[in-house]
Structures are given as C-alpha cells and as structure tokens.
Amino acid sequence: MLVFLVRWLRPRYALPRAPTESVARGAGFVHLRSEPMTRTLVVAPSGLNLFGGPAGGVGLALRAREEGWGAGAVGVFLALLGAGAALGSVAMVHWSPRREATAAFLWLAVQRVEIVLLGVGPRWLTGAAAFTVGVTAGVASALLSAVFQATVDGVYLGRMSALQRLGDDVLMPAAMAGFGALATATTVPSFCDDDTVPHGLHDMTS
Question: What is the pTM of this model?
Fold first, then answer.
C-alpha cells in the first residue's frame, strides 16, 4: 500500500493552495464563519453522526440486553447495519439525483423513522430497522460528500475536511457516553426518538 501511494497514486487535478499558516491564526475558522453554506456542510454531517451513531452503536447493545437477546443478536444487527450502508453506497455509483442535498434530506427523514424503530418492537423489526438505517446512512453520506466537495472552495477543502473530521473524533466519544448514560437512566426507545437532521441541513434543500 505504501509503495502504491508513493509511486503510482496521483491527484486527478491540481487544487489551488492557500498560504501555509499556523492553527493559531485560524484561517480555516475565519473562512468557516464567513461562508454559511460551507459551515452547514461541515457541521451537518457531524451532527448526523452524533445522533445516528450512538443509536446504532450503543442503543442496539442496550436493547439486546434489555430484551435478553444476547450478544449474537447485537452482532447480527451491526452486520445488517453495515451491509445496508455498503448497499446504499454502491447504489450511488449508478444513481445520481439532480438535487443531491434534497435527496440526502429525504433519505435522512426516512432514517429518523428507522432510528425510532431500533428501540421498539420484536427482534425482526429491530433488524430491519438497522438495515434501513445503514442504507439511508450510506446514501446520504455519499450525497453529502459530493455536495461538500463541489461546494467548498478548493483552497480550503483540506482544512474544512479536517475540521469536519475533528468534530467527529472529538464529539463522538462524548455522544456515545452520554447516550449510554441517559438511555440507562430512562429507556432506550426514549433516546432513539430524536431528530436526526440538524436544522442547518434544511438551508441546503431550499
């Protein structure tokens, strides 16, 4: 892999480069504040992950424990979620909606319903919901990634990608722990029933 990266991997086209600056000077943060659409595209995916990730990663395990389904059921649910995400991503190879942001929002509206179903019903319904959550996540992630790359100024594309990734890496552990603590204190269904679409995403579909 390292040999491939060094010897053969080449960019398809050159991107413009911003002057090198220290993090302390915050050119990326200044750009983020001045560009509302870019800010939405950086914040929205992190928000989606913060709501959907804990419901699948923690909620399914807590649900299986409450119902006495065992660790095997958790493995099946997570496999269904992963298979659905892979299927959704592959589907985007052959399907290209005219309005990517609008299509992503519609798929995420479906995901909201399916996340609720993770916390209720029999085992087969939880499995079906996990698979559908995976499909919607795969489709929406592919569409939002395309919109992100097409919209963000190429000069700041790397920095905005880093900020997006930083949001996931910093906030996701806290979201996982918080979801687990609150779901344990109350019930799993009450914390699966939440709005998985950040309000900023609506601006992209208008």
Answer: 0.71
